[in-house]
Amino acid sequence: MRVFAAGRHLSGSQRVAGNSELQLFRSAFQLSHYFSDDLSASIDLPIALIRFREAGQVAQYISGIGDLSLSGRFRLSRLWQRRLAAGPRVDLDLGLGLPSGAAQATAPAATATVSPHLLTIGLGTFSLQPRVGVSQHLWRYLSLFGDLSLVLPLSRSPGGVNYGLSLGYSLGLAAQYRRYLFAARLAARYQDRANELGMGQLLNSGGHWLDGQLEATAHFGRVALSLGGRLPLFASVDGTQLTQSFSLFAAVSIRFGEPNKSKRSRQGNSPTSLPAGAATVRHETAAAPTGTPIAQRKGTTPAPPTQPQTGFVRDLARGGQSFSLAKIRPGGRVAVIDFWAEWCAPCKVIDKMLRRLAKTEPLAVYRVEVPSFDAPVAQAYLSGVNQLPAIWIYNRRGKHVVRQAGVAPADVERAVRDVLSDK
Q1: What is the pTM of this model?
Q2: Alpha-carbon torsion (160, 164, 165, 166), positive or negative
Q3: Pairwise CA distance, residues 246 & 296, whole Å
Q4: Who contacts 121 (Cβ-Cβ below 8 Å, separation ≥6)?
Q5: Of 27, 343, 385, 386, which is most buried with the most CB atoms under 10 A?
Q6: pLDDT digits (tens, 9 = 90+) for 225-274
Q7: What are the structural domains, with CATH classification, of the chain?
Q8: What is the average per-residue pLDDT within 197-216?
Q9: Sheet holding 161-162, edge to edge
């Protein structure tokens, strides 16, 4: 939901006296479906109420739904991150706006200081909406992100108005600590002048805007809560326009359809098995005097291999760097990849539990530090995951049988023991 107030009258970049005010109350329903970690589709339907009032006049209202938006997203950086461990994350969106928005012209008042306004919820036209988003992990909790977007109307509104293209671009920093994400960004927008059928260009339309935005998000399992605000830093409009003074927004998102419990099937970008040779049972024996492998000596029968009785704990990757699964060679043991972070309290409990089990059980534990979800290792292996701890478990044959994220340490221990008991 967004609460927006417009109370500044501008002519160019100069503020002028005005006696009108506008408020916008907007909410949006968005539903996304992930076909894979790299491909998703979304539908977005905004609903809004606009209140416009000039001094001494009765307030005018317009309410209804905005333009329905259908979009698809492809994780473009996956094309090169399959070969490179590092690099920025790049998402490519392509959207189509459908003309379901409402519009209404304001009634001019005798004391009006600006021209009559056209109040709109959406454009009321077909439009193309491409976008490119980029994010790069910088250091532990800190990431850099930005985007470039375009809205290109393909038709006129029912009132005969073509609103012209809109170009948006932003750059910001995000910091993640435990379940909390804090972001600050500068967002700029260019709006081309609109033109009306039979009237030509609308002089009081179009311009440049620069805003500062702060946002905080908290994740609670499947639910995420966001709260933020936007404040205009600079504006230069064509003609004389009523522009935004500030806006506040809040959002609630709910993830469903992906269980938090373990799954004995392929999920996300986790492989179904370790690389060839990674799960091979290795045994060390004293060298034969002749140098000939024991299994090749004439008249001898190789002894059946014995299963390892204990395990080990190793750091596989630190500081958010990615890794290669080829480095995982558990030697016939059950293998656990433990994705952890310093800010994750349950991760510390799980680490102690895994170290204890590795002393008495054939368990190979590989620790991977994930300081933030924009880190290269998270982009490579934890796409779609937004909480820790995260655990992958492979059985003695190297098959990936369990994946868990955001679960309690007791659930992790139970899953590990189940796989250990499966001979």
Answers
A1: 0.64
A2: negative
A3: 81
A4: 46, 48, 50, 62, 63, 64, 65, 66, 101, 102, 103
A5: 385
A6: 899 999 989 988 888 777 777 888 888 887 665 443 333 333 445 555 56
A7: 2-254 (2.40.160.40), 308-421 (3.40.30.10)
A8: 87
A9: 161-162, 195-196, 200-201
